[in-house]
Amino acid sequence: MADESTLNGLRAALAAYAEPYAGQTLGDAQAVRDVSATAGGYTARIVLGFPVGGYQSELTEALGRHLAAAGIQVPLTVELQSDIKAHAVQRNLKPLEQIKNVVAVASGKGGVGKSTVAVNLALAWAAQGARVGILDADIYGPSQPLMLGLEGQRPASPDGKHLRPLMSHGVGAMSIGFLVDAEQPMVWRGPMVTQALTQLLTETHWGNLDYLVVDMPPGTGDIQLTLAQRVPVAGAVIVTTPQDIALADARKGLKMFEKVSVPVLGIVENMSIHVCSNCGHAEHIFGSGGGARMAEQYGVKLLGELPLDAHIREEADSGRPTVVAAPDSARAKAYFEMARRTAAALAARARDRSSVFPKIVIEES
Length: 365
Fold this sequence. Notes:
Helix content is about 35%, strand content about 20%. The chain is of the alpha/beta class. The chain folds into two domains: about 5-80, GMP Synthetase, Chain A, domain 3, CATH 3.30.300.130; about 100-345, P-loop containing nucleotide triphosphate hydrolases (Rossmann fold, 3-Layer(aba) Sandwich).
């Protein structure tokens, strides 16, 4: 029979561990669900609110060091599980059925690599064990068909009313690029664009998803504002580069989401550092630290600093983005960590409670 004092000490020590992605202790996150004695030592069941695929060994090693520092030397087996909840959206909107969380990826200006970040975010979550879809909301310049290797393909509509998303690397995808010719320009006014995107979102049979990533159009104009007001978003990610002009526009994107009460999960600094493929020299071509300063200024998280690497462009153009093409590379690791921080930031936000309240119907007698 296990020593109760040892079990209590182990529980307390595990609860005190500061989990780096969640930014809080396992106790505060209510993640330590069960600690028990086994024939070979002890087992701890830990449940986190974000995808945990690939995190088992890293967390086990970190907990071993943490326990050793607390003077606890016992064999510990970690049973790591994920429990992804639906989170609150704008007050005037309801969450979509079957989709727990819609996450918008946006930028204040074009050319900062927003679509590359969005596709790698979606694929990283899928690789980590989540059910994921991606909606390409960039009507004028849809790039997800190319990045996902789906150019020229058309979605099916089994019932004549709903589209079935195309699948790529375990992620369901929908884009206006699947429905029009690749070289056909979209000469549409704002209302037509927002109507088309609303239909793509609501008339696609996504199935049960933990996350739907929306690759937003660049900018902060009428289209972006209307989309942010119409789409029930649980959180937004702002993509920028370190240079001042990109940061100035990224601030406008952040303010836009604040205006429509969409929580900004954090900032991703893309093209943060370039490492020469020939000599290995590292250089901050677009400046350094801009994303960190902006995150601190607005009280949001810096979710990742992603490299400027020719391989990332080549992999996206080939239809096999980095986290799929080279999952063990250093550049892919930056995406996987960014994805985990983003999901953890969402997990820390208020949950959607609409399902626990009774529906009140008033009928005239």
